[in-house]
Design a protein that fits this description.
The structure is a homodimer of 323-residue chains. Chain A has 14 helices and 10 strands. The first copy, chain A, is an alpha/beta fold. Chains A, B: Its cofactor is Mg(2+); Mn(2+); pyridoxal 5'-phosphate; Ca(2+).
């Protein structure tokens, strides 16, 4: 992984991914007691930065391989990012999802042209086996959600934009809080900023109880979460940081920051009110850290990513109740 | 009013107003049966295009006049646009609001540095008299919400961006639906497109029962609404088109399009789900027309403005229930 892979991904994404805006509001600055800039990846195609990684990975395949199609395991944003990218290239995308995934996510993926294959978690069906069989039969290429260099490179294009937008806003020193699951976006942004804006320091942002990355950064080895599923921030829940992402995070990131689910809901509500954008809980955790844990952050300026590919209206209503 | 005033306003706004993105989603295209591009003015500072007009008007004043401050009558987006612009110039903004305005709007205006002066609608206090007295005492300049050339010029900068973004998207023919109250935004965009993209045809979009502009375009004279207040689309309810705006609309616009309040709520919900942006009912009426009345539109591509400076969470919850 290096900056050249990210700039190459940026060239492939140009004209296809959106250059998402950096938003701000005096009201949010007041809450945080610092300047807060919000990188609005919720406005990316499919509602999250996952489109960048999906496009990067699909576009990096040679024509012959790509023609056969791609396959991904995901019930959420990665599924939609890969499906949308594959459709744009006119190639099949098979998405393996649990049969009990929310119908919203299944339909959302189908609407983007994804061929959804459901497996039954309860009866012990093995999704890896199903995926491997399909991949073998049809010559599909597996696109992993984060531990895949071209996916990390795609997410890194968000970091290139942050570097430029921070410079445009006159910001040379800042802490950059990134919503962190397996670490693909965090590693990609960290690599981009190392090359383009080394005084912007990246911190992974995670929900309480799922702070595997923060603990891994302290211990120096890949820690696991005690609980591996459930929780409002499902978009960013992974058992542990990735094999490829963790060494990058360990080398480049400052300490992880953690916020509660309730704080994530409040951050969603404040983004609704003051920025007019829609985030999901996992995609609001970095903003929650920025707003409610700014005492743990050194710089006067915080940049936080926000995203929201699959927002359950019921959860959004719960967030609005916090206003 | 001419294009030179708009390009001059654009020069004054540069670096201060946001260049708002043009969003889209395959799901919205499917609903409309046409390509739909959404000009996301909800992402403008203060949540609506009113910031453009406010900045344009305040920045057009000579230094001596501006130093004394400005005054506006508004309980909504115009108040916040003017307050934010005045604060940026370091000059006072007095905003006259009814005492029974939602506390959210009063506080939102104060948070932006506006000096809110409340009057009592019920007891018959005359807001014009209060405003005139204050303006006289303090040398304040009145900034009208739409019937003011520099405000129209400011809103027109949104049209310059639409012309450029449509060209970037390969769109040369389109119908442009604009949420229309007094007609400031609609007239500004129409003037900008006349000069920069004459094959983009503007249509005012209004809620049922408040279609004064649509009826005025048919009769050729300024018609009034039977009911002058109330309704979900309060952000764009005015008794009739403006004296300055109407001749521009009559010369440049195609027929008005009308949608129901329920359709506005559904458009808000679809913008939530597919675009991840927050609109208020009045700011979603053009998208509602695009999605649910596309049969009245000739082109294959529709561009719709969307905005949402003051969204009541309760109204937003009602919108989410339509999903």
């Amino acid at each position: 992984m290096n900056i050249d892979m990210i700039t190459a991904a940026a060239a492939r994404l140009k004209g296809h991914a959106r250059l998402t805006p950096m938003l701000s509001s005096p009201a949010l600055d007041k809450i945080a007691g610092k300047r807060v800039l919000v990188k609005a990846e919720c406005l990316q195609h499919t509602g999250s930065f996952k489109f960048r990684g999906g496009w990067s990975a699909v576009s990096a395949l040679d024509d012959t391989t790509r023609k056969n199609g791609v396959i991904a395991f995901s019930s959420g944003n990665h599924a939609q990012g890969v499906a949308a990218a594959a459709r744009a290239f006119g190639v099949p995308a098979v998405i393996i999802m649990p049969a009990d995934a929310p119908i919203l996510k299944i339909e959302g993926t189908r609407d983007l042209g994804g061929e959804v294959v459901l497996y039954d978690r309860a009866s012990g069906e093995n999704r890896e086996q199903i995926g491997a069989d399909l991949a073998m039969q049809r010559g599909l290429t597996l696109i992993k959600p984060f531990d895949e260099p071209q996916v990390i490179a795609g997410q890194g294009t968000c970091g290139l934009e942050i570097a430029q937008q921070a410079a445009d806003a006159g910001v040379s020193n800042a802490d950059v809080l990134v919503c962190c699951g397996g670490g693909g976006l965090t590693a990609g942004i960290a690599l981009a900023l190392e090359a383009k804006a080394p005084r912007l320091c990246v911190h992974p942002a995670e929900p309480e109880g799922y702070d595997d990355v923060a603990r891994s950064l302290i211990s120096g080895q890949r820690e696991r979460n005690a609980v591996e599923a459930g929780g409002l921030c499902d978009a960013i829940l992974t058992p542990s940081p990735g094999e490829i992402t963790f060494p990058i995070l360990a080398r480049l990131c400052g300490p992880g920051i953690v916020a509660s689910e309730d704080e994530a809901l409040r951050a969603m509500a404040l983004a609704f009110r003051h920025l007019k954008v829609v985030a999901e809980p996992g995609g609001a955790i970095a903003l929650a850290c920025a707003l409610f844990h700014s005492d743990k952050i050194e710089s006067d300026t915080i940049i936080a990513t926000i995203s929201g590919g699959n927002v359950d209206p019921k959860v959004f209503e719960a967030a609005l109740k916090t206003l």
